[in-house]
Write a structure and sequence with these properties.
- This protein is mainly α.
- It contains 2 helices and no strands.
- α1 runs antiparallel to α2.
- The radius of gyration is 71 Å and the shape is rod-shaped.
């Protein structure tokens, strides 16, 4: 709009002598241009208000969008942290489960080894029990033989004591006879 006025002024100034008719035309044209200019200014003002209103809405919407985007980013970051934490815990649980499986395999192996060893020991124990039974039977027989031998020895001892006592009596009698004979010899 300002260009129109500027062109009009240039045209108006370019010819110093202006006729009344031309002056009226230019004046009418200027008023028309001024009216259009006022109308354009009013329209521009309305448009500027609309633009300002829309800019405020855009700013509000952008602010809301940025807030929402930040909240979502925070939520996503929190979720990512939670997922990372859960993945870490899952990895730890998997490692623990693997360790437990390994330990369980070792325990199963040890259990089977101990069961075999237990069977072998039970076999050895039953063999030893049989030997103990045999030895106990042998001990019983030997004790019986010992008791019989002790009984026989006691009877033999008693018999020997009796014989010894008898022999001592006989010896005492013989000693008396020898003493008597010695006394007779010494008297003679």
């Amino acid at each position: 709009m300002k260009k129109y006025i500027f062109y009009i002024l240039i045209l108006g100034l370019s010819s110093c002598v202006v006729s009344k008719k031309k002056y009226d035309q230019l004046s009418t044209a200027k008023r028309g241009v001024d009216a259009k200019l006022a109308e354009q200014i009013a329209t521009n003002k309305e448009n500027q208000e609309t633009i300002n209103s829309l800019n405020k809405k855009v700013e509000t919407t952008t602010s809301d969008f940025n807030k929402l985007k930040n909240e979502m980013a925070e939520n996503n970051a929190a979720k990512d942290d939670r997922i990372a934490e859960l993945n870490s815990r899952l990895a730890n649980l998997n490692a623990d489960a693997s360790d437990l499986n390994t330990k369980m395999d070792k325990v199963k192996f040890q259990q089977s080894f101990l069961e075999r060893e237990n069977k072998e020991n039970e076999s050895i124990i039953s063999g030893l029990k049989a030997k103990i039974k045999t030895l106990n039977n042998s001990i019983s027989e030997l004790n019986k033989e010992k008791n019989d031998a002790n009984t026989n020895a006691a009877w033999a001892k008693k018999e020997m004591k009796t014989k010894l006592a008898k022999k001592e009596q006989e010896l005492a009698i013989k000693q008396k006879e020898i003493d008597a004979l010695n006394a007779k010899i010494t008297e003679n």
